[in-house]
């Protein structure tokens, strides 16, 4: 493929994917071609999505994933229209490309997390979509490993996922859903800490009455810790954390 610089994007995609994998030599070819001018344009972004959809689930070279995520993160965040942020149009394009084949694969989820962790702002529907995709991954796995804890942490605290609401109710519900799904499983030791810290922030660091757990929040907490019929160890630690750090707790939580 010595004349790869002369191929059209369509022809290059056909060449790359004809054996069903992206190998190490092909990764180097793609780096040479697409990072030559330092800018990934929309046609080239389409190319990366097309190749990934074709080889999804196949044993590709380990550096293909990094190239896919880095190239597309660069495309979305280093554009001239909304540098550093994902605007509505970019968010719609990203969701459309990811949903095209009816599934969110590991690289597409990594891309979403990468963008949300770096961007200054992101549309809420993109963040909600990423959290649902993360939830689906953990449901498939049945437990939460170190890598997944890191990804969840970026979704909760990443630049694009943060605004003046901090850890909002949607994120807190997301964390409870994950904890319920993986309760009693051999999860990463770091999962408990993230769950307790983030939900604790939601309960205790609201902008209206910080440190006060009001009646509405008490009702929500009771509903969430009782949702699966039992209070697991992580939920017990969370409740103890809230008890020890709240200035005031409305009756009912005891």
List the helices and strands and how they pair.
Blueprint (H helix, E strand, L loop, with lengths): L8 H9 L6 H11 L7 H14 L6 H16 L10 H12 L6 H13 L5 H18 L4 H12 L11 H14 L6 H16 L7 E2 L1 H11 L7 H13 L2 E2 L5
Parallel strand pairs: 1-2
Helix pairs in contact: 1-3, 2-4, 3-4, 4-6, 6-7, 6-8, 7-8, 7-9, 8-10, 9-10, 10-12
Protein model, in words:
The chain has 254 residues and is mostly helical. The protein folds into 2 domains: 8-139; 164-254. The chain has 12 helices and 2 strands, in the order ααααααααααβααβ. The chain has helices at 9-17, 24-34, 42-55, 62-77, 88-99, 106-118, 124-141, 146-157, 169-182, 189-204, 215-225, 233-245, and strands at 212-213, 248-249. Strands 1-2 form a two-stranded parallel ribbon.
Query: Strands of the biggest beta sheet: in what spatial order?
Result: 1-2
- What is the helix fraction of residues, given as a range? 55-70%
Number of strands: 2
Sheet of most strands: 2 strands, parallel
* Number of helices in the DSSP assignment: 12
Alpha carbon gap, first and last residue: 69 Å
The mean pLDDT is 91
How many discrete domains? 2
Uncertain ranges: none
Summing up helix and strand content along with how strands pair, one would put the structural category as mainly alpha
Q: Using only CA atoms, what is the Rg?
A: 21 Å
Q: Strand share of the residues?
A: under 5%
Shape: elongated
Q: H/E element string?
A: HHHHHHHHHHEHHE
